[in-house]
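Good morning,

Both structures are done.
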Amino acid sequence: MPDLLLELRSEEIPARLQRKAAGDLRKLVTDALVEAGLSYEGAREYWTPRRLTLDIRGLTARSADVREERKGPRTDANEKAIEGFLRAAGLSSISEAQVQSDPKKGDFYVAIISKTGRSAEEIIAEVMPSIIRDFPWPKPMRWGKASSQPGSLRWVRPLQSIVCLFGTEHEETTVIPFEISGIVASNITYGHRFHAPEAITVKRFDDYVASLEKAKVILDAERRKDIILHDARDVAFANGLELVEDEGLLEEVSGLVEWPQVLMGSFEEAYLSIPSEIIRLTIKTNQKCFVTRKPGEETLSNNFILVSNIEATDGGKEIIHGNGKVVRARLSDALHFWKRDQGDLPDLETLEASAKKFSLNLKKPLDQRMAKLDALNVTFHAKLGTQGERVERIRAMAAKVAFPAGADYKLVDRAVVLAKADLRTEAVGEFPELQGVMGRKYAALQGEEAVVSTAIEEHYKPQGPSDQLPQDKVAITVALADKLDTLIGFWAVDEKPTGSKDPFALRRAALGVIRIILERGVHLTLLPRIVSHMARIDMDIVEKVNAEKAKQGGDVVDGRGQLDEGMSRQLDLLSFFHDRLKVYLRDQGARHDLIDAVLTPETDDLRMVARRVEALTAFVSSEDGKNLLAGTKRAVQLLAAEEKKGTVVADGVSDALLKLDAEKELFAAIKTVSAEASGAIEKEDFRSAMAALSTLRAPVDRFFTDVLVNDEDAAIRANRLALLRLIREATGTVADFSKIAG
């Protein structure tokens, strides 16, 4: 079966777009071919800084003939129905349709639509131009003389050539003829723009790859990554160092070069006084270079690894020299930021009010930056106020979280007021991704407690499902307070995630709260904190609105409407936590029905939910659990059915009305088990509670064997239904067994 080779060669494609663009090309082309009636055995995409390539193997040479019967209206249908049928079927006259009879529905029209199969070459030539013209680049550009013409080609960078070849492995391939904005598909490509700019005639994929490699182009991005990584390790090792590996940087650099050449440069050791994180980010961000260190050490060396796209005749001396000049200039700037951040701000007298508000010491540089952040009224969010106001709210929330988390509130409060201070440092201004990291370093330099410094960095954690959690209780408290304030705040102003859109990363924040509570064992009830914190935010909003109205001479609002909506928003946020918790627990292997069995709309102790699910999972897996589950569900279903019919159920079980040994035995067992299960639950010992419930298995089984619930005597029937209600209540202390499958 024939293969298809497609190459779209252009000027430099941004590295961040290459992998996705190649995947988009594969999907667009294969989807179009399949829709046109072709099939294929496999497809693989490739990319370099200057080309997107697609290799499709085992493509059918022709689409199949198609015969379709399309049923139409009855023969006595009105004229409009018949006209619509003709349009849909592509017929010019009703005489072209056939008439078929149905014994029940009568005579109706049928269109026989026959489509002759087409050659793959014809289909490819037809679908390619629109795929290329409508390619989903995020910011395509026009170029050349034709750029002013309507409908001119838009591409990420000027498109220079197209290769489109079709044929079998052993026969001569043919060029699929199509043209886009003057660029005609051919069998000609070009190699490395400096080392081998001459034209290369291509026959099929294998010789295409080999020819490109001779022309100093390695087509496979994964192979380029492998070459860069291993050569960088080898160069570092040869100099007594080890490479500080960076997968993101490796991916980016592999998209900047077609013929990777790994070299080592250096800078003055004096720059090593800058924190390693700043050095690494400076060199990575500005020069796309890797850093190195001595084996087994955390601090960096003054050597860096660069990757060139040119095999230099001087061994790379000029390239190393040029990169070194830029690295030194950037590190000089970084050193300046680092020193300035440790000095005093020039306008300390203007910061006294902010310092008093947050109990800051203006003799300390990081305290000054926090005071400055507040004094400048730096906006956090238009509806939620400034960063200073946000820190005040986080302080209030931290006060409600510190005790359950077991943290020293004084240390927590100090960490909170400094947590956002590094937003006003020059280092974070240059490298926003160092937020928290620089706060920790500057806090340590000014003599803060170690747990305070650590909390400043770790309160942003976790950043995702696999990120590390904060370790210390102070950091745990600040992290929870920060995330809860964020979630409650955005819920208060109705900025919730919608569909796939989550601009404020609220799903991530909720997952962070859940992971900290569950994995760090924090016994924290959410609803009281949500209620009080949202009420505070609501009142702040009302006060701001009234202040603005007062300035304009308008009528003030009393805020009751805002507060009246509070409970629905609070429960909605709790429901959002429940949704995230379900995802988390299912990822941990929990059954969805067991989660639903322990989760109610008002459940706000997420740690207890997880523990109940864990105990319930073990319980329903046991033989006693399975049998009790069946008996309990029978009892609950029978009771529910009678309640629905309005059958009288006694308020309590009367000993005098218990006539049979089986019901007496069950009543005694329920009283004993309920006490044992309740005691175990108070101690949060859910496994013991389940074990106590499991002893109900035998008396429940015997009850349904020996006892007729719907006795003719109404009093006895009501009493026995009350007994079933006790079963529901006893098991309900742990879970709603009616929601458990099986």
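Second structure follows.
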Amino acid sequence: MDALKDLLRNALHEMGCGRYAEAVALLEPHAQVASNELQRYLGESLRRSGRVQDAIGPLMQALALKIDDVDAYLQLAFALQSLQMKAEAAECFRTVAALRPDSVMALAYQAHGDQQCARWSDFDGNLRALHAVIQAKPDDAGDEFGVPFALVTVPHAAADLLKVARLSTRFLSRGIAPLPPVKAVAKPTLRIGYLSSDFHAHATAALMVEVLECRDRERFEVLLFSHGPDDGSALQQRIRAACERCIDVGDLDPAGIAARMRSEGVDIAVDLKGHTAGSRFTALAARPAPVQVAWLGFPGTCGADFIDYVIGDDVVTPLGDAPFYSEHIAQLPRCYQPGDATRRIEPTPRAELGLPDEAIVLLSANVVSKITPSVFDAWMAILHRLPQALLWQLSGGEQADARLRDEAASRGIAPDRLVFMPPVGMADHWNRLAAADVALDTWPCNGHTTTSDALAAGVPVVTLRGDGFASRVAESLLVQAGLPALVCDTPEAYVDRVVALVQQIGQTGKTGQDAGRVRSAERPTPAIPAWIDSPAFARDLEALYERMWARAVAGQPPEALPAGG
């Protein structure tokens, strides 16, 4: 028994440090042991180390040994999601909710699981249950994990997101002790430490890379603290070359990451993940740097009292929203999301994409979980008014795609008017987007990188203005791009705007002043929009860092930093 306890303790330590392959090596020789914990740890470690199919057996065995093991159901759901068995994953999440009806985590995963497979029969019931349990949960609950990202994709109140984020952060950062305080002092060079798992062929790296290349190298030294894969991609090589060093912290737990950041003398620590998959933002709970910032990764508050600022702009983070942030709002004078003006688009012919040349192609490159029934109602209304149009949707897997076709049929739209695009590499995805005529945004969670990708491909994006960060990203990008007319106030106006834009294409062969691109079988390479100005963005970001640092040096607490202030 003591040997088993030691084995489990050692495995849990490896898992806590993100060393899942090492945990597998410890546990797999004992795979026949009838221990619920051992089987669950083994299943999770197999899943997280990339052996997803192999994880199913141990997780099922863990449940056979303890039928009400909530954590085993969760791990099984995550494995099934990875295997594109999202309907089965949703059933696991529903079981978790049945076992833990008073848990924000359980109800959030239930709602999110249904969204991922476009199962809307319980949409309203899921929301009512989720909102009720959030309201009932004490603000100081210390044993609750809330899944803030699941809340972002469904209708919610800003105060509820703050509450869920605080609950989650308190749970995730438990046991992390603060390091001895370090004082900010005036210095000629500031060291910025960016923390993320996405410094490879990933959207975050693609957004940031040119800004890092354009930075003031005399005043700012940049370190990347990476806990993600080494994929050897050209983008990874480029973002590493843009910085002084890339430090691999993948084998460290949050406390270890914090210690490494402190040893490297980081002045301003910037987390790029927040409450998203693979995050280790809780490393900042140890206070490794005098100034700590959240930017780019999570569209909302982290609910962390150890993060001083959240970087946004006057659209996504108006100062009037300050009560809904644990951080102080720091505004850039332009859209908070950077871009890469060196990106080049080589449009993929429609014939290679299974798209008819004569059709009006309405693009939805957002993930299925962002599609709510009201969004889909608007899209189907558009298809009713535009019989020559089709919806080109990013595939959510065979099950979700089939459900969306069924939902279309129930609204009187032929299922074959939905065409699904499979996942492809980043560059191929950018190139194929240029085949679309108009992009349809989602709400309450907009397309974020999805919106800037469409604009970079020369495709106009129509959005609905909402409340909260996640509901205003597309508006921020469109305003920056000089296309405010594509931001609508109601679903009815959204439908009308799309229809008018498409009719404009049919009448003139162009989308007019809004985007200035020609629609024809011979599609020219769209110009990268002029709104991407990385040198100016770098100066604005650096000026914001300087303002944060000046307050810290003066011994002043963080405060809101409005654009132009």
